[in-house]
Amino acid sequence: MRKLYGCAAVLAASIFAAGDASAFTHVVTKGETLAQIAIRVYGSPRYETAIAGANLLDAHGGSAIVAGQPLEIPAPAHHRVKEGESWFDLAKTYLGMSRRAELLARANNGKSWVPPVADQEIEIPAVLAHIAAEGETIATLAQRYYGDVNKAWELDMYNDREATQRLGRGDIVLVPLIEIALTEEGKREARLAAERTRTEGSGQAYEVQRRAEADIPPLHADIHAGRYVDAVAKGNRMLGAGALTRLQLAAIHRALLEAYVALDAPGLAAGACASWRQNVGPAPGVPGAAADVKLDPRSTSPKIRAACGPR
User: Fold this and answer.
1) Residue in 14, 35, 18, 4 with CA at minimum distance from that of residue 130
2) Cα(75)–Cα(80) distance, rounded to whole angstroms?
3) CA angle 288, 291, 293 (to 5 degrees)
4) Cα-flanking dihedrals φ and ψ of residue 172, to 5°?
5) Where is 25: in which H helix or E strand?
6) Which own/partner contact pairs does 61-68 have at CB distance under 8 Å and 24+ positions apart?
7) Shortest CA distance to 29 belongs to which of 20, 18, 21, 40?
């Protein structure tokens, strides 16, 4: 089973609470392209690769999008420094490991050995998880996301890899997007997306849930047909839409569990299993909500049972 690099921080950008500048959902309009969206939210078409990577659109070399499709837009988060916090503390909290302090400090024009100033607002780079395809290398990923093969060492350092390590199909590489910043239009869209998420009874949740009901059967069809990378892309797009019911979340995470196991991504599989158990069990607050969900060894593969732990 291939090593999963830094799985604890996978897709960290999507969970930051960051005011008007955290990852948000953009719904594709008719005729829109990834390049047009990148120009609108980032000010440059070069960053369409970040949008494609965050939504796993380019896993097979294609990045077609359609009207009505929700896309996660990577964006930096922000944190107001508290008295006594160091770059190492903040890197562990937001990037998963204290040794990433140098990158976090550099993203804010600082040095890791010089603590940030209390009440200073710092920027937390967006981080996306790239699932490697056959023949990809760290150098090709550096070219894709940074536009410079010479920055491969940054990806190696962030993922705690040796430069001589080969990248295999299905390996997970975390890509910190230090240079990405939102335009004023991007910030406005992020604020509107956050407002829509907070608004209840607007009919948006109804539409999202109705679309999910139609999309879940094709998701499971991808699993049964062995189209695991396609299933990961589809499942994460559905999760990115938000406002799903617990049963819908359970169905999606169960499919992602199988896909991640097949792709030899044990960290992601474990996370999907935990989310599946949380949503398939009794309602939150009921004793045994997750513990009562068991996997039958007669009908469940050993790899899936291993990803879910000894229950």
Assistant:
1) 4
2) 17
3) 110
4) -100, 125
5) strand 24-27
6) 61/133, 63/34, 65/28, 65/32, 65/33, 65/34, 66/28, 67/28, 67/29, 67/30, 67/31, 67/32, 68/27, 68/28, 68/211
7) 40
Q: How far apart are CA 69 and CA 227, in angstroms?
A: 20
CB 197 within 8 A of CB 242: yes
Spatial CA neighbour of 80 closest among 171, 144, 1, 16: 16
Q: Which residues are 70's β-sheet partners?
A: 27
Joined together, the tokens standing for residue 59 give: 């896993």
CA distance 206 to 241: 12
* Domain residue ranges in the chain: 7-76+125-187, 200-293
- Distance of alpha carbon 116 from alpha carbon 110, whole angstroms: 8
| Residue whose entry in the numeric block shows the structure tokens 């009874």 | 201
Write down the pTM of the prediction: 0.61
Strands 121-124 vs 70-73: parallel, antiparallel or unpaired: unpaired
Per-residue pLDDT tens digits for 135-189? 899 999 999 999 999 999 999 999 988 888 888 887 888 999 999 999 999 999 9
